[in-house]
Amino acid sequence: MEVLQDEYLGMGSKVQEFENKLEDFFSREAVCVVNGTAALHLALEACQFKPDSEVLVPSLTYVASFQSITAAGLKPISCDIETENFLLDIKDAEKRITSKTVAIMPVHYSGGVGNLDELYEFANSNNLRVIEDAAHAFGTEYKNKKIGSFGDIVCFSFDGIKNITSGEGGCIVSSDNKILDYVRDARLLGVVKDTDKRFSKSRSWEFDVNFQGWRYHMSNLMAAIGIEQLNKADSFFRKRRKIAQTYDSIFSDHERIIPLKRDYKNVVPHIYVVRIKDLDDRNTIKSKLSEKGIEVGFHYQPNHFLSLYKDDTIALPITENVYKELLTLPMHVDLSDNDISHIASSLKKLL
Ligand SMILES: *Cc1c(COP(=O)(O)O)cnc(C)c1O
User: Fold this and answer.
1) How far is residue 15's CA from residue 224's CA, in Å, rounded to a whole number?
2) pLDDT of residue 312
């Protein structure tokens, strides 16, 4: 209401306030953009890699990871995942390094992050930049440090279903000021230092532009929602952990339903994914559950199967084995214990 009454809806002081609050949260600077895909796209552009350079990325991710790479004029190289946590398999990635490889984009699937020390060692020894797709990992910690509070470049999404939302939205966190300054200009069509002007309710009328930019800034309307969501983040994190643990305990003795293993001390679960052994027709399960008012999802179709990214020379045995058996059950902070037992018992009965 404050933003509406102020009648300054676009990028201004609320975005600055949200960025300041995010800076407190991460203990380092964050730059807000219009969505998580834009965050990844601008992070990659800010690195100024040569065109057609290669970026290692797990195939089992939202198409946004892949699209952000091609949007930046780069080539996504599909990698396989580890069986237990569905995170990028570093050994597989290592086999795919060429003289053109410049970066690695780990995807923190479902809020888990795996062994980040190992990942950064691998990146450092191969001279790769790391762009973390942390869209699922807002709130997750690694060795008592928040995801985003360390690491090369870390990108978040505040889309409507993410751990916190600003309607749509996203941010880039880094300690590299060259990257952050690039993104501050690039989100406003490359207009030099326009961010500073907008934060003081002004704008640039005479300006310079020296690289390709985009209309990727966040608005005050979005930031106002983001600020209120961030204030409630701790209670959201607790609720998500509780829901996932409730599901886990219901499924613990089931011989076909295998929940994703995670350490709830550190992980804030983003989606609740189960692997169902020998599942051969998940569409039937999906439509039968839908009749009971239960919406399930598939995270994800492997990207190396999509026409744009198809490469018949690539074999990713674990991804190709696992994806057909994955089912994502409802998980959001308004879910009640009754909802959870209705969902779990309906799934068990169907199987
Ligand atoms: C949501 C998501 C994104 C993109 O974020 P948007 O805000 O939807 O653009 C990128 N990667 C993953 C893994 C996501 O889940």
Assistant:
1) 8
2) 84
The protein residue with its alpha carbon nearest to ligand 1, atom 6, reads 36
260-313 pLDDT per residue, tens: 999 999 999 999 999 999 998 999 999 999 999 999 999 999 999 999 999 888
Round to the nearest angstrom and report the end-to-end CA distance of the chain: 48
Q: What's the CA-to-centroid distance between 33 and ligand 1, angstroms?
A: 13
Q: How far is the centre of ligand 1, averaged over its atoms, from the C-alpha of 65 (Å)?
A: 7
Q: Is the pLDDT at 217 greater than 90, yes or no?
A: yes
The DSSP bridge pattern shows strands 153-157 and 170-174 to be: antiparallel
Phi, psi of 259, deg, nearest 5: -70, 155
| CB crowding 118-140: b at 16 or more within 10 Å, else e | ebbebbeeeebbbbbbbbbbbbb
Q: Three-state SS for 81?
A: strand
At 53, which helix (H) or strand (E)? none
Please count the residues of the chain: 351
For residues 165 and 226, the answer to whether their CB atoms sit within 8 Å is yes
